[in-house]
Specification:
This protein has 107 residues and is mainly beta. The protein is built from 1 helix and 6 strands. Strand 4 and strand 5 (82-90) form a beta hairpin.
């Protein structure tokens, strides 16, 4: 019975805790340019996050037409460190690159 009371008390405390969300973050800067053959955007928020990306159609009008995307984003981790990730997404898939990401060994 004591276990149930303690469990219910802890559950109540967890529900009463303020939610940890980024709902309070505001957009500091936002730019975008969308065209028929590509796009570009960037956004920066008050919580230290930023994201920029550009995409272009490759091989337009052919059977191999594809979208090629390059971008990067940064964010402040729970440990207080700012992390940055750059990436490419194209016919070869999503390819992220960052100092904190593991690298596969060369075969």
């Amino acid at each position: 019975m004591k276990f149930v009371i303690v469990f219910v008390a802890l559950f109540g405390l967890a529900l009463a805790a303020p939610p940890q969300s980024n709902a309070e973050a505001t957009v500091l800067r936002q730019d975008s340019n969308v065209g028929a053959e590509g796009y570009q955007f960037s956004v920066e928020t008050s919580d230290g996050k930023s994201h920029s990306e550009e995409g272009q159609l490759k091989n337009i009008g052919t059977e191999n037409e594809a979208l090629s995307v390059r971008g990067s984003f940064t964010y402040l981790g729970d440990d207080g460190v700012t992390y940055s990730v750059s990436y490419v997404a194209d016919e070869n898939g999503f390819q992220p690159s960052a100092a904190h990401l593991p690298v596969a060994p060369v075969a």
